[in-house]
Specification:
It is a single chain. Strand 4 and strand 5 (about 90-95) form a beta hairpin. The chain has 3 helices and 6 strands, in the order H-E-E-H-E-E-E-H-E. The protein is α+β, with helices and mostly antiparallel strands and about 120 residues long. Helices cover about 40% and strands about 35% of the residues. The chain folds into 2 domains: about 1-30; about 30-120, no CATH class. The protein has a 3-stranded antiparallel sheet, covered by helices on one side. The protein has a 3-stranded antiparallel sheet with strand order 5-4-6, covered by helices on one side.
Amino acid sequence: MSLSRRLSAIVLLLASALCQAADSSRAKNAYYGAIAYHAASNSIGWASDRRTGREARIEALKQCGREECIVVATVSRACAALAKDAKKFVVQKGATRQEAETKALGKCGGQCEVAAWTCTK
């Protein structure tokens, strides 16, 4: 194998190792959020920037305050918004709060309003 091919192989291996290390570091620093909702009582709970998805879901359910609450959205490195009217609710995700809210309102319809949102780091 020529020297230039050996150097190219070494560079590729180093680049691959750096990418894997960056991905691993990103995963360790991820934060989670969640929204919980109970339509019949209009109870809503949310959590942001929790260390695990489980912690986010538990906090959202705790804030919602009813046994009947369900987690309707979970996010990591993103945002979620819940829009609702008297008859329905819609949850959408987006890269920003504005994007999530706009998508939720667009799917829900003209009488809806944003009832909850969460974003994570």
